[in-house]
């Protein structure tokens, strides 16, 4: 095996890009390391050092004229330990998100409001904020669930292999990514691609609903379990919710929407592509009707 020490900077950069494209997020050592044993050794060392530290502190005291001892230097004032910025309670964060979203009068203003919003903990671990991209004038909107690792790295919804498949799916019904509007329910990637919590979804809801309201699409194509459940307010799987036209309420607008399987699901279960093709045909037929 070639060692990293024997590689040129260009070769190392290429290798890192290859790992990133393959979905690698953590680097490990060549040899296994027993972290449990390391921790036990560090704790034992701290226990040995503690009595010595106490003895040293006692040796630094001096006798006063009254026979009492005092330290050479006054003790530091005690106060609250420094901590990170306090978390905003969920109900207050939802209120702030709703106010920020409703105050925006255009998609540009809404994007600025979302990028400046700090009430959702998902933002602290994400690299990118995913917002609606494309052509709003098309009045055609595609919405996915949450950013993937590829999306977070590229700053664009539906990136990587799933994005390439989405492009082919849209092309099969005569659409292009650049000619429609594409967004996600959750604007920030949850750590480790875990599902967002109920409070996190509630905090993000005003922003995606306002995106739909401002874009005023004539039809919306929803991808994946989370997206369908979010807009349809149901708990079924995508196989139970797909292929059915329903009106979704966003602000004062009711928009027709249909759900289908996410491209990532089709990559892992290619046999389901026939179902997605039916949904795409239904979407194209609705667009042709105007």
From TrEMBL:
<feature type="region of interest" description="Disordered">
    <location>
        <begin position="59"/>
        <end position="81"/>
    </location>
</feature>
<dbReference type="InterPro" id="IPR005122">
    <property type="entry name" value="Uracil-DNA_glycosylase-like"/>
</dbReference>
<dbReference type="GO" id="GO:0051539">
    <property type="term" value="F:4 iron, 4 sulfur cluster binding"/>
</dbReference>
<dbReference type="GO" id="GO:0046872">
    <property type="term" value="F:metal ion binding"/>
</dbReference>
<keyword id="KW-0004">4Fe-4S</keyword>
<dbReference type="InterPro" id="IPR036895">
    <property type="entry name" value="Uracil-DNA_glycosylase-like_sf"/>
</dbReference>
<dbReference type="GO" id="GO:0004844">
    <property type="term" value="F:uracil DNA N-glycosylase activity"/>
</dbReference>
<protein>
    <recommendedName>
        <fullName>Type-4 uracil-DNA glycosylase</fullName>
        <ecNumber>3.2.2.27</ecNumber>
    </recommendedName>
</protein>
<feature type="domain" description="Uracil-DNA glycosylase-like">
    <location>
        <begin position="131"/>
        <end position="281"/>
    </location>
</feature>
<dbReference type="InterPro" id="IPR005273">
    <property type="entry name" value="Ura-DNA_glyco_family4"/>
</dbReference>
<keyword id="KW-0411">Iron-sulfur</keyword>
<keyword id="KW-0227">DNA damage</keyword>
<dbReference type="GO" id="GO:0006281">
    <property type="term" value="P:DNA repair"/>
</dbReference>
<dbReference type="InterPro" id="IPR051536">
    <property type="entry name" value="UDG_Type-4/5"/>
</dbReference>
<keyword id="KW-0234">DNA repair</keyword>
<keyword id="KW-0408">Iron</keyword>
<comment type="similarity">
    <text>Belongs to the uracil-DNA glycosylase (UDG) superfamily. Type 4 (UDGa) family.</text>
</comment>
<keyword id="KW-0378">Hydrolase</keyword>
<keyword id="KW-0479">Metal-binding</keyword>
<dbReference type="Pfam" id="PF03167">
    <property type="entry name" value="UDG"/>
</dbReference>
């Amino acid at each position: 095996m070639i060692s990293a020490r024997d590689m040129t900077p260009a070769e190392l950069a290429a290798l890192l890009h290859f790992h990133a494209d393959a979905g690698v997020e953590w680097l490990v050592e060549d040899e296994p390391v027993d972290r449990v044993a390391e921790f036990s050794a560090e704790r034992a060392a701290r226990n040995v050092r503690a009595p010595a530290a106490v003895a040293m502190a006692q040796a630094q005291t001096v006798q006063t004229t009254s026979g009492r001892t005092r330290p050479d230097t006054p003790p530091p004032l005690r106060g609250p330990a420094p901590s990170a910025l306090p978390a905003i309670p969920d109900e207050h964060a939802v209120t702030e998100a709703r106010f920020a979203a409703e105050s925006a009068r255009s998609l540009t203003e809404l994007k600025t409001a979302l990028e400046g919003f700090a009430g959702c903990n998902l933002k602290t671990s994400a690299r990118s904020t995913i917002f609606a991209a494309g052509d709003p004038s098309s009045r055609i909107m595609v919405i996915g669930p949450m950013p993937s690792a590829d999306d977070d790295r590229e700053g664009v919804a539906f990136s990587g292999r799933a994005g390439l498949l989405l492009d082919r799916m849209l092309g099969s019904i005569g659409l292009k990514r650049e000619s429609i509007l594409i967004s996600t329910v959750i604007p920030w990637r949850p750590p480790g691609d875990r599902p967002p919590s109920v409070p996190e979804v509630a905090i993000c809801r005003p922003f995606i609903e306002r995106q739909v309201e401002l874009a005023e699409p004539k039809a919306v194509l929803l991808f994946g379990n989370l997206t369908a459940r979010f807009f349809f307010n149901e708990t079924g799987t995508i196989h139970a919710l797909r292929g059915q036209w329903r009106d979704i309420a966003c602000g004062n607008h009711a928009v027709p929407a249909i759900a289908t399987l996410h491209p990532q699901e089709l990559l892992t279960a290619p046999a389901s592509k026939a179902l997605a093709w039916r949904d795409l045909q239904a979407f194209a037929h609705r667009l042709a009707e105007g």
